Amino acid sequence: MVHRYVSAVVALVAFCSSVALAANPMPSPAPTLPPKPHGTEIAFVSSIQKDLDARFGTIAQAQAAGYYRYTNEDDTGAISYANDQWTSSDPQHPSQLWYSAKGELLGADFSRPYVAGQRPDLWGVDPSRWIHFGAHVHYVVDAAGKETYGATRVSSFTAAGGNVRNPQPQTVVALGKATDAAQVKHVFLFPNIWDLIVWVKPNPDGAFADKNPLVTPSADAKPMD
Question: Considering the entire predicted model, what is its pTM?
Fold first, then answer.
């Protein structure tokens, strides 16, 4: 979940930039609605749980569709996978999927470009469910077969000579996060977006809850900042 108050994306909101790409770097206040879906939201949650579990029930299925891991496991037990597509055209196209350390599909993020004061009104979901994430840069480094995951401010990336509109591995080296550009598997701009976080795994606390009591994080999980 880059996801979320419950994902690495959310865990990294502190890295949001104050430049034009992230005019409002901090996420909007948390929704005040109860986390359990209501009204037309019930059909939305039911449909994505059935659809995404069928198409992306395994990490291998997600990878075949272009998703790749870019975060550590967070303290909700979620590891986030992104596909570099930050405009979800419909409920069948999440921008992120989250899996447990054991490979169980947990949830998904849906994204739309950020327009100040205009939360998306889509798919029967209350607009207040959508939260704002400001732009920042993520990278995945593979050194000697061990992957590490990190993020940095847009301002820090540009100060190191990088172009956030076309991020390159060499800037990750300049930041001291890799010793060779060949070690950088992925580097990308997490853009300025509205984001919707939904549990695919049934959650007794509600599909829009921050955590799921049925998910136990592994010993390697890292608390969110």
Answer: 0.86
DSSP-derived 3-state class of residue 45: helix
* pLDDT at residue 132 tops 70: yes
Q: Considering the domain boundaries, does residue 224 fall inside one?
A: no
Q: How many whole angstroms separate alpha carbon 11 and alpha carbon 9?
A: 5
Total domains present in the chain: 2
In sequence order, what are the beta bridge partners of 184?
Answer: 141
Burial pattern 16-30, b for ≥16 Cβ within 10 A else e, equals bbeeebbeebebbee
Q: How far apart are the two ends of the chain, measured CA to CA in Å?
A: 14
Tell me: the pLDDT tens digits for 171-185? 999 999 999 999 999
Q: Is the pLDDT of residue 123 over 80?
A: yes
The reply to whether 151 and 125 lie within a common domain is: no
Question: Residue 95 domain-assigned?
Answer: yes
